């Protein structure tokens, strides 16, 4: 009996405990539901609904003429919410939709797409990525008309998730200058330096967390729309940039050089028209633009003989030399303490004038002159470097500018040989941009302007910030000295180390440079070659510098390696720029405007001109074997002979003689952008007839 009572007691205790535990569960459920319900509901929403960042559209980067250098193109990830469409719409359209998806992506069969969508619908999935491949805007527009998709987001479940990608219409043109920026907001060039303007201000939107950890956007009144980025208008000229890169690449390849750099700048304004940097790729894969040697730390190097311009400036400003007085360079060697200065020419130049010494780039002559006049007070020579501003960073608009290096008299590493070697471009470091700034100042009559590559920041037609030409120094030297320096630089091309680039069409002024490279503390037989100058010398509009590092082969000097690149660039700019090219293009024989027999007819559309001539009883003839509808006129035997004008060929057409209306029609149909000045018919065009057409390139017309 006691055993039975004991068992019953234990059962009762167990029952009571189970009952209490069950009651506690019901109590907890009720408490969570009615007391803590709002708290946990909010917690659930915070986990499954979040305001997430919506990226702003990045601004565009434009060349100076409005050509697009970099933009963001929209691409779309195609996603569907399978549960949204009504059963009737879904059943009617699923077969056709699956077939279209299979035909478009060509990665799975129509049955596979159909099965995936139906399974997701059956499982209650609200987010299904149909394919990882992103589609463009045109494809997105076409897809939005497909079965089920055509019902839209709310009735068809289609979601086109926008993903933006950076696109460059000119591919690798000005690659490093335009630059890039990565996910960590680190990069180079304009993209990096002006990122705070380009990136815009991101917005926020409500997203719902769904199965698989994905987030689906949900429309909400509290969404904050993003503010798109500002556009950057640069000073670059697409045509000049293309010319600079092509000429540089050709010479680098010919000389098997390590790297090269070119800068082209507008003299009066300091606007950079082109920056090209090309370096050998590994594995024999040609050349690529991987670093901006024109302005960066890695571009800092001993400038060589281009620095002799500063030495001459200091000597002339002191008034201690006459350019026509003689100097003895001996056999081309001269000892300064324990080091021997040498000229490039074996046997030296003997006794020559100071002017000739500069033109022939005599190291012995320049270093002797500087040592004789500044050896007892080297700080005065260095003060001219400081006066010109070559010892300080420029404050260029792109980040990563290298800081110049010059020794100071009295410091630990200033030796007795420092001054003579510094005078010819050694024992100091400059970027190509610094050297060009000096030469540009001489071309600009002594006025030193700050180089600039961005002229405005804007959104649409609203300019947020503009950059004007900044004058760093009103004059780097006296007017007399500047004129003497200009004469010296022109003499280098006319008579000296760069006479191989002399031409009769226009004048070039500049200076060659060849510096031995310092490797592991020793000067080697590898050279850093350069040419800095400006053109046309009598009325300078452009200045430029060309750097080619470690060229191979014989005659690895600045005059033989870098100067020809300068001339090629200058020739092509001169041919394109109507403001400096005073020679008109070849004239065609038009009908004589001074006779009583014929009106002044130049060029146009054949059917229109023929109708006019026939109406006035003017004899005219056209042997139209090629079927061209555009013509030019010549006079023969008291009648007009029409000559075919092949404006419909795939190259730049000859529009001289056409009216502005006809010229606009012809050129804009080629994808060219037209600017013009004057009135009347076309007299000159900036792009030569027969040259290659690049879309959105600007062509300038002069009417008269």
Automatic annotation (TrEMBL):
Domain PASTA: 646-704
PROSITE patterns on file: PASTA
Localization per Swiss-Prot or TrEMBL: Membrane
UniProt name for this protein: Penicillin-binding protein
Signal peptide feature range: none
InterPro entries for this protein: Beta-lactam/transpept (IPR050515), Beta-lactam/transpept-like (IPR012338), PASTA_dom (IPR005543), PBP_dimer (IPR005311), PBP_dimer_sf (IPR036138), PCN-bd_Tpept (IPR001460)
Keywords associated with the record: Carboxypeptidase, Hydrolase, Membrane, Protease, Transmembrane, Transmembrane helix
CDD domains reported for this sequence: PASTA_Pbp2x-like_2 (cd06575)
Segments traversing the membrane: 7-27
Superkingdom to which the source organism belongs: Bacteria
Chief location of this protein within or outside the cell: membrane
